[in-house]
Amino acid sequence: QVQLVESGGGLVQAGGSLRLSCAASGSYFSRYAMGWFRQAPGKERELREFVGSLIWTIDGTNYADSVKGRFTISGDNAKNTVYLQMNSLKPEDTAVYYCAYNSGRDPRLTRAGSYDFWGQGTQVTVSS
Q1: Using CA atoms, how far apart are residues 8 and 6, in angstroms rounded to an integer?
Q2: Inter-residue contact 86 to 15 (CB < 8 Å)
Q3: For 1-37, what is each residue's pLDDT tens digit?
Q4: What is the Cα–Cα distance from 59 to 51, expressed in whole angstroms?
């Protein structure tokens, strides 16, 4: 089992910045990637939107077009923690943000169903 705990959400004005953290703990056999997703208000869980991902072994990142150039994912192997730096925030970025763990069983990192474990989510609200 893997436990993921997000932190760092909050209320920010448009144009501001926030940094989310996701700390992983527990026992896991393999660790391929971490992803960030978001669920906008009123949207179903199945419609969680891909934000970005980090492949640990190559330190490779990928981002949704809607956040490219504004959001940055990084990881700290020693702390088993992944970060999501969000700059130039917009009201449409308002959502609950989730981090997720991918063991490598399904490498399609833009798909929520490819992830094995999820955090509880942290609320990000951007005011206009």
Answers
A1: 7
A2: no
A3: 899 999 999 999 999 999 999 999 887 666 789 999 9
A4: 16
